[in-house]
Amino acid sequence: MIPLRPVPCRLLADCAGRHPSACLVSAVSRPAWRQSQTSRRPPLRHVFSGTARPARPKTALFFPGQGVQKVGMLTPWIEAFPATAKPIIEEIDHVVGYKLSDVIQSGLSKTLNLTDYAQPAIMATSILILRILETEFGFRTSERVDVTLGHSLGEFAALVASGYMHFQDSLHLVQQRAKAMSAATRRAEEEYGGEYGMVAVVTEPAYMQSLVAAIHKFVGSSSSPDSSEDRSPIDQVLIANINSKNQIVLSGNIERIKTLVAHVRQFLGHDPRAVRLKSDSPFHSPIMRPAVAVVRDILSGTSRVPGREGEDMVSWPDDAVPCVSNVTARPFESKAQLKDLLARQCLETVQWWDSIKYLDQEQKVRRWVGIGPGKVGRNLVGKEVGMRGKDKVKGGGVWAITDPSEIEEVLIGLQETEDLVDEE
To answer: Which InterPro entries does its entry note (predicted)?
Structure first.
């Protein structure tokens, strides 16, 4: 177990007026965590190669998608770790070309909620948290994690954590992707009219299979991203996300979605709950087709990172941690496939539930750590594998680091489950 240390009186005095997290995090002994991990370095790629088995339970690192943004979400990290956070924030602002940190810290919610700001803000905050874990606590993804994944936008942070992309390149790509998605939505509104967005549909697990089948039946070919492009966007609806055993997300024209949900309710004789999401664009729908070309074009270029000019934006190092694709629910298999799937991800269905089932049931991942704002990702994972303290968790646990005050629980939880034996 990680030794804890009392919070010095001086530190408690310094906490006056500061975010509580800035004081609570000092309870974790950072040097002790580093020392406790030095002898536990399992070989990489063993998760999918079927060769070496790690001495510890398999561990996944996952990152959130759009919708978790909140004004002030950087504040606790800046206050708890000012020396580490400041240069990262300067790097973020430099990459995007303006003070994104000001929008995150003191902007209006309606501004931060816009796709152009929300996507780079969430991705940047996620990596800032990961870098603080690395710098302040000696956490090494390549040594402590067996696989990464991210929900939609979160996939870009996962690729950075795994070692396939550099932070600056990935953040630039996210920024341009967000602009392309917003532009695609505006184009649909201007040319065809109507309102566009996303609606979560929640049902009982027993109805999920029939719900998905009914939606495909009613929307016809528009349920596929390969549907004919002559169909107007106002008629295009897609299942954007299959998030869990009882939740999917529909994307497209809002009136079309409402009509579809009414038909499904009548057809199934069941009343699934429909909830409008905080999204200004219909992500993962055919309307996003123009964004695919933008992402593909950027990925065909070279790195923007100083010292890597002229090199491929995507790397394929031998020591990279496997990363699961949203499109296939399986790890990327090559650099070319990664580029193709990452571009297609803009309009294809996010297979989140299949990804979690694959890692849980086939790969026997037993510890799950969410990194980034909000707890939506943790809750979705917990629905499938169980959550410590609430359900019968399969193995180690499901955690999330969204605030500095949660670091202690997660690091201690990982340490306590290092020698856990999978009974399955």
So the answer is: Ac_transferase_dom_sf, Acyl_transferase_dom, Acyl_Trfase/lysoPLipase, Mal-CoA-ACP_Trans/PKS_FabD, Malonyl_transacylase_ACP-bd
Cβ atoms within 10 Å, residue 271:
12
AA letter at 323: C
* CATH number of the domain encompassing residue 257: 3.30.70.250
Q: Lay out the sheet containing 147-150: strands in order across.
A: 147-150, 58-63, 365-371, 397-401
Domain boundaries, position 241: 186-284
Residue 397 lies in a domain: yes
Same domain, 77 and 15: yes
Write the single-letter amino acid at 224.
S
Cβ contact 397:388 at 8 Å: yes
Encode pLDDT of 256-297 as tens digits: 999 999 988 888 878 899 999 988 899 999 899 999 999 999
DSSP 281-339: S-TTSGGGHHHHHHHHHHHTSB--STT-TTSBSS---TTPPPBB-TTTSSB--SHHHHH
pTM for the model stands at 0.87
Beta strand 237-244 pairing with 247-253: antiparallel
The 10 Å Cβ neighbour count of residue 343 is 22
In a domain, 3, yes or no: no
pLDDT in tens, 340-396: 999 999 999 999 999 999 999 999 999 999 999 998 888 889 888 876 545 455 557
Final residue belonging to a domain, choices 227, 255, 284: 284
